[in-house]
Amino acid sequence: MWDERETKAQLLQELGDLRCRVSELEREIAECRRAKEEMARLATFATENPNPVLRISGDCTILYANNASSAVLETWRRQIGQRLPEACCKRAKEALSSGKASTFELCCDDGRVFLVTLAPAVNEGHVSAYGLDVTERRKAEDRLRENEKLMRAILDATTESIVVVDNQLSVVTVNETAARRLGKSPEDLAGLRPEGACLGMIPPALVRSRAEKVSEVICSGKPIRCEDQREGRVFDTNMYPMFDAAGKVARVALFARDITEQRQAEEALREAGLRYEALFENVPVGVGISTHGGRILGCNKAMLQMLGYGAGEIERINLSDTYVDPARRIELLKRVRADSQVRDFEAELKRKDGTPYWASLTVVPLRWDGQKVLLTVQVDISGRKRAEQALRESEGKYRTLVESADETIAVVNEEGVFLFMNTTAAVRLGGKPEEYVGKTMWELFPREIADRQAGSIRTVIRTGQGMNVIVPTTVQGTTRWYNTTIAPLSDANGEIRSALIVGRDIHELRQAQKDLEEYRIRMARAQRLASLGTLSATVAHEMNQPLTVIRLTIQNCLAQLETDGSVQGVVDDLKECLEEVSVAASIVNRFRGFARHSSRRRPGKTNLQSVAEKVVRVWEEAARRRNVRLMLEGLDRLGELDVNERDMEQVFFSLVENAVQAADGTTDHRLLIRGVARDASVELQFVDDCGGIAPEHVSRVFDPFFTTKSDNEGTGLGLCIVEQALTRVGGKIRVDNRLGEGVTFVITLSVSD
Questions:
Q1: Which of 446, 425, 427, 450 lies closest to 504, judged by CA?
Q2: CA distance 130 to 692
Q3: Long-range CB contacts for residues 312-316, cutoff 8 Å, separation at least 24
Q4: What is the per-residue DSSP string for 341-393?
Q5: At what angle do helices 536-563 and 507-534 cross, to 10 degrees?
Q6: What's the pLDDT band for 195 if we cut at 50, 70, 90?
Q7: pLDDT over 90 at 746, yes or no
């Protein structure tokens, strides 16, 4: 029985122990669950962290790096599993050996700056690196330093004395002007109290007065303005409170401006008031006096006219009401307070009727009748503003014109560098204007072409004289003809530094001109053949006589041989036959040359006397039959000219033909071909008395295919071909018509040196 009770007690004890153990296990399980959750949360810390997180082993091997560490790894030129750079490796080892965290800055290749903290885990034998992106903070610090430098420069540049004191009246900082007036350097003045800073430079009573006013600013938190005098100078002093983060006055800034000249000017103005009253009323610019608040105290007639108010009305308005934008007056007043006087301040004002106009304002603060006022001088600049607007619009139109032009337009300097290029030029080069500006001609064109173009540009820049050239240019491997004009460009100082190039693609025009020249040659040949056709009757008449003599002579020879066999008579007749054959051959030779093609050779030395004689020989029989006498005068004194001989034959031939065909054939006429030598030219005059041209036909005589002759006499091409032939050699032709009397064709040919 006892054993049973003992066994139950043991079982109960064991059951209690078991329950305790189960409770402990439950607690351990809960702790494990929480630990796993915490580990899972910590595991995402590095992955989701927007800043770099790395783990580094004791031997400086990179064990882990999150995604945000890519910029750091790229800067180090390392990957996970590789050692740190030597400098970083040294820092990591020092942190691990000391057991203390350390920080350093890392500037990445992408421009970001990270503050890297090395946190050693001594027991685990590794170092964790945490990076904080401080790029914006560093930029802000740089900007702050720059602003401080700028502010210091501004303080030192101003002509006002600037002193900053703390609430204990000790000097914090001063600018160069204040230090110079106090006879010390800014460094020597720092930390001094007023009595020490101003020792020997400012009277003690004035120093105490200023110190009291500074104390008043510290206590009231309100600015104070005062004037004082020393050594004959007047100073306008402004004291402004500077508050700390708690809103208490921590410092006071003192601005002392020497207004001696201003006060002297005010005094002189008061003394000269009467003297200048007439000038005030009659100057052509608006002059007015107003309070700082904008109440108009007085103005001259010109100001009244500008604003459109009467003398009684102007004093009832406020100046702010005359501004299209009242904020401009507020800005003007700020500048007056800062700079004492303001010149050439431009603002858009409005008249009484609301009409806007632009004015240039000069404002000077002064004292007038015991109060502080502003003297304003107003000049109407509406015309200038309109001109400026027109200039801007003109520049816009010019740019639009340049960019939309089909011509290549560029600006190139003496070194052959492109300073400007329009879109058309860039497209022809295969790109955009910005791709070629700054490049040289040798980078865009073959060397030979670039050398030639650069030489022309240098010539224009050095001589100041423009030029026009027509040359082939190779662009993107294709050679085309361009008509290029190069003009000098002057800078603001009037010096020629660059040249404007305008190039027009005339490749198709050049080809058309070539084709036209071919047609002209064909027309000239057609005209020659037509003219020879006109002369065919003359040729037939001239050939008839020698052929008849030859025929009769041969018949006589045959008769003599058949009758008496006299050899001597036959020989004489045959000799006469040969003479007539020579006559016939000379007649044929005279005309054969005029049926040939016009020569394409370059101009050579040509004797116009010989040309004229050759043409006269051809036409002498036809002229005789029409009772026209052909005469030459002065051609032998002209010498030889650089012209194409065939072209000149055509000119003489057509003009002689015109005169001969114009003759009526019943009365005697003459054609005089006269040569006159001028200073730099030769003048050929073809003067006939064959009746002249009808007035309505004079303007058309050089038109192709225009003729007043019958169908079997002319083609209407003669004078057209004459004009074209003269144009090729730089010559000119004009017609002087004398109706009822005759015509004079005047040809002018230039003479080269």
A1: 425
A2: 110
A3: 313/352
A4: SEEEEEEEEE-TTS-EEEEEEEEEEEEETTEEEEEEEEEE-HHHHHHHHHHHH
A5: 40
A6: low
A7: yes
- When pLDDT is averaged across residues 447-463 and rounded to a whole number, the result is 88
Q: pLDDT class for 753, splitting at 50, 70, 90? A: very low
Confidence of residue 679 (pLDDT cuts 50, 70, 90): confident
Give the whole-angstrom CA distance, residue 125 versus residue 58.
6
Q: How many residues does the chain have?
A: 753
Angle at 125 between CA 121 and CA 129, to 5 degrees: 50
Q: How confident is the model at residue 5 (pLDDT cuts 50, 70, 90)?
A: very low
CA distances from 696 to 24, 700, 714 (A): 134, 8, 19
Strands 669-677 and 628-633: parallel
Q: What is the pTM of this model?
A: 0.31
Per DSSP, the three-state class of 637 is helix
Q: Which helix (H) or strand (E) holds 498?
A: strand 496-505
- Kind of pairing between the strands at 732-738 and 102-107: unpaired
Instruction: From 631, 627, 630, select the one nearest 667 (Cα to Cα).
Output: 627
Q: What does DSSP assign to residue 417? A: B
The count of other CB atoms within 10 Å of the CB of residue 330 is: 11
Complete edge-to-edge strand list for the sheet that includes strand 102-107: 62-65, 53-57, 126-133, 113-121, 102-107
- State how far the Cα of 579 lies from the Cα of 584, in Å rounded to an integer: 9
Position 539 scores a pLDDT of: 55
Q: Write the CA distances from 715 to 180, 524, 707, 731, integer angstroms.
A: 102, 11, 7, 24
Q: Reduced to 3 states, what is the DSSP secondary structure of residue 60?
A: coil
Rounded Cα distance, 407 and 436, in Å:
17
CA 184/CA 178 separation, integer angstroms: 9
Burial of 521 (0-12, 13-18, 19+ CB in 10 A): middle
DSSP state of 223: -
Tell me the helix, strand and coil percentages in the chain, rounded to 5: 50, 30, 25
Sign of CA dihedral 559, 560, 565, 568: negative
In 3D space, the residue among 413, 368, 339, 355 whose CA is nearest the CA of residue 268 turns out to be: 368
Q: Tell the burial category of 453 from Cβ atoms under 10 Å away from its Cβ (0-12, 13-18, 19+).
A: buried
Nearest-angstrom CA–CA distance, 571 and 721: 50
Residue type present at position 49? N
Kindly tell me the burial class for residue 31, based on how many C-beta atoms sit within 10 Å of its own C-beta (0-12, 13-18, 19 or more): exposed
Q: What is the rounded CA–CA span in Å between residue 375 and residue 362? A: 8
Torsions phi, psi of 479, nearest 5? -95, 125
Q: By three-state DSSP, how is residue 109 classified?
A: coil
Yes or no: say if 46 and 66 are a contact pair by the CB < 8 Å rule: yes
Cβ atoms of residues 502 and 485 within 8 Å: yes
**What stretches of 49-85 show up as alpha helix (H) in DSSP?**
70-76
Q: What is the percent of the chain where pLDDT is above 70?
A: 74
Q: How many helices (H) and strands (E) does the chain have?
A: 24, 27
| Digit-coded pLDDT (tens) for 135-188 | 888 887 777 777 667 666 666 666 777 888 887 878 888 888 877 877 778 777
Kindly report the three-state secondary structure assignment for every residue of 307-346: HCCCCCCHHHCEHHHHECCCHHHHHHHHHHHHHCCEEEEE
Burial 239-276 (b: 16+ CB within 10 A, else e): bebeeeeeeebebbbbbbbbbeebbeebeeeeeeeeee
- Pairwise CA distance, residues 224 & 215, whole Å: 11
In the DSSP assignment, the letter for residue 471 is E
Q: What residues contact 116, with CB distance under 8 A and at least 6 apart? A: 52, 72, 103, 104, 105, 106, 129, 130, 131, 132
**Three-state SS annotation for 578-630:** HHHHHHHHHHHHHHHHHHCCCCCCCCEEEEHHHHHHHHHHHHHHHHHHCCEEE
